Amino acid sequence: MTSPREARPPGWQTFTVELDQHSGVATVTMHGTGSGNAMGGLLWSELPAMVAALDADSRVNAAVLRGAGDCFTVGLDLRWYLPRYRRTVRPGAGLPQVRAGLLADATTMQAAITAVADSRLPVIAAIHGSCVGAGLDLISACDIRIASADAFFSLREVRIGVVADLGSLQRLPRIIGAGHTRELALTGRDLPAIEAHQLGLVTRVPPTSQALFVEADRLARQIAAHPPAVIAGIKRVLDESLDLPLSTGLRHVALWNAAFLPSPDLPDLLAQALRNDPPPSQAGERQPRTQTQENRTTAHVHRPGHPPAPGQDLPETPRGQTDRSVDQDLHRDETRTQYQELQRDTAP
Length: 348
What we know:
The radius of gyration is 23 Å and the shape is globular. It has 13 helices and nine strands. By secondary structure, it is of the alpha/beta class. Helix 1 runs parallel beside helix 3 and helix 9 (about 230-240) packs antiparallel against helix 10 (about 245-260). The strands form two sheets. A six-stranded mixed sheet has the order 1-2-3-4-5-7, sandwiched between helices. It has a three-stranded mixed sheet with strand order 6-8-9.
């Protein structure tokens, strides 16, 4: 049976948002203000408002961001920006006024994209076709990026005499490294999806846009099945640890768990992990175990850092349970003892 879906929230002109209430996945489709999902004035005000609305909706646990039609986006809507720029620097305008206007425009657009990065929600960018200029700024603020084989990326600002100023020069070095970012920014060349995958800009390259959207939805559902507070905590710790020394980052995550780990649900989640049971569904019903699930820990173990074989999905890990190696049984007794001690310590 298909999951109930609804467009939410109503009223956006540059985006449509479809919420799958069963999985908690919101699919955000960008239409923009011009052809090719160009990113013009109204989009820059609707983007942060739309993200805030999704953040405030407790039914939403993950989001997929995609473009309408034949591409993700052609980037900044120049038909909107060029007249705006000319008005800002019109003859007779004082230099401080011009500088203030240009600065205000840049910071407004920067803040709109940063709203995506700051969201509590994990955001998966599903890119097909062109992803140019401001589009690359936008996906750099997303948590995960996957692209169809026809996708390409470009920091084209250098071609029009502009220093890219909406986040790519700051976020891309953390994703693909400083050297690759410098090459893309200084040349303005197109980066095909396969090369983007090799650089680590995207993590998967499905063959078609149709396969891309299916894969993005599957990945979002897998993430959305985990506790929302834990997902938000992972995002915060990852983001805040980027500029910290290793020892400070370790201390930060220890303090985070000391503050947020204790919860009434934790003993049950640990018990499920010990039993190798899948977590209850979003509707509160326990899903029956299948033969595939019974054999997953031995026959289909996915090791971190090693991609699955072509056509093979990553195993879905039950809530509260990490990927286990084949020697997991050697540690089961020790883990069970720790859990029993935890039960005694937390018993009323």
